[in-house]
Design goal:
Helix content: 55-70%
Structural class: mainly alpha
Order of helices and strands: HHHHHHHHHHHHHHH
Number of strands: 0
Number of domains: 2
Number of helices: 15
Distance between the termini: 25 Å
Oligomer: single chain
Radius of gyration: 22 Å
Largest sheet: none
């Protein structure tokens, strides 16, 4: 529960006036920008049909949280003769929708119930001595399950309507560098920032200072896109600094020697890089989750300053939550082993080719959807995190 002082503080900071912001405005603004830039560059022809363009910008599945589509990925398929007349892959689409609902309703919302009280009172004496690091780790998982769950649902609905859209996530917390993290996290935003900000700013051309400036400006604007707050700016600035350090490290002789390792030392060094990258990303999440700068800094302080007697308290010590997450991880690894680590479209097509395996795919998908609805925290469904952007 939020303390009375926190409630009064929230009331004092409530905006005055009756401003109404359209849901998903940033996502269809991005699509509009991409369209105008591609037309200006001459890579696509201008769309003369208002209805087709309106459908491109307002098609409901991906509208409020992506993936951010380029004209060649959607608008080009809306022309006469190219418009789908049947679902593209209903079995894969159903599985994606079921997996998305499970990620959101069971995993993300269960984590939210465990960690929201702590973050609401992060600067309150009631959380003094509590270790913030497990809560940030859980938040990292929450935002991943919440956002990737929405993407799964959107892509699944797209397949039902006959469109295949790009994935937005590729195991981002297994990245070995922050540069690789941004190739795996919110990938359609990453390519947008790269192609429409970083490269026009000069990209990799020029000297180290020019490249560093381009990286920092790009990430600061990426942070500002999430909200007009110093905490979002710091989140973007931290990622900009991480990327600059990452590039500088890659030019050192020590980096080259470590990259040349083989066998167990190479495996150990890979997991060290994964751990360093994950913790760097989690440090930045402090400023993303807590939009008041004093709260963000308090969260960082509690990474290192806590009371061992009550370090693991509240939601971070809930064994049922950790058992749920462990079970999902085990099921995911088992599924990947059974599908021979194939990409999902190839695995779904192979399973759907035979009557028995097709029945397993359909039955498993519908069962997963039913489990998601049954296991969802009763009356505690949270809005998708990225709806606010």
């Amino acid at each position: 529960m939020m303390s009375a002082g926190r409630r009064r503080h929230a009331m004092r900071r409530a905006p005055s006036g009756n401003w109404i912001v359209p849901m998903g405005i940033s996502f269809y603004a991005f699509m509009g920008i991409a369209y105008m830039v591609e037309v200006y560059r001459g890579t696509i022809a201008a769309e003369t049909n208002l209805w087709r363009y309106s459908l491109f910008t307002s098609f409901f599945p991906h509208l409020v949280a992506g993936p951010i589509l380029r004209p060649s990925e959607f608008l080009a398929h809306l022309r006469p003769g190219l418009m789908p007349t049947r679902p593209l892959d209903p079995a894969e689409g159903t599985f994606l929708i079921a997996r998305g609902f499970f990620k959101k309703l069971v995993l993300a919302d269960s984590i939210a119930l465990a960690i929201d009280p702590f973050f609401a009172d992060i600067s309150n004496p009631s959380t003094a001595g509590v270790w913030s690091l497990p809560y940030i780790y859980l938040y990292a998982l929450q935002i991943y399950f919440d956002f990737s769950g929405y993407t799964d649902i959107a892509r699944g609905l797209g397949l039902w309507f006959g469109f295949r859209w790009p994935d937005n996530f590729n195991w981002p917390y297994l990245a070995t560098s922050v540069q690789e993290f941004w190739r795996r996290w919110h990938m359609t935003l990453s390519r947008f920032l790269r192609d429409y900000l970083y490269i026009p700013l000069g990209g990799n051309r020029g000297g180290p200072l020019h490249v560093a400036a381009a990286l920092m400006i790009t990430m600061l604007l990426g942070g500002l896109w999430h909200g007009a707050s110093w905490s979002f700016m710091l989140w973007g600035g931290l990622h900009g600094a991480f990327l600059i350090v990452n590039r500088a490290w890659g030019t050192t002789a020590l980096s080259a020697r470590l990259a040349a390792l083989n066998g167990p030392p190479a495996v150990a060094w890979r997991w060290v890089r994964i751990a360093l990258t994950f913790n760097a990303v989690c440090l930045a999440w402090c400023f993303f989750r807590l939009t008041r700068l004093p709260d963000s800094l308090e969260c960082v302080r509690k990474w290192f300053d806590f009371d061992w007697d009550k370090a693991l308290a509240g939601g971070s010590a809930d064994p049922a939550l950790w058992l749920l997450l462990t079970g999902y991880a085990a099921a995911t690894l088992a599924a990947r082993a059974l599908t021979r680590h194939e990409p999902l479209p190839a695995a779904a097509a192979r399973l759907n080719a035979e009557p028995f395996t097709s029945g397993v795919l359909w039955g498993g998908s519908l069962a997963l959807l039913a489990v998601a609805l049954l296991m969802a925290p009763g009356g505690q469904t949270q809005p998708f995190i990225y709806f606010q952007f």
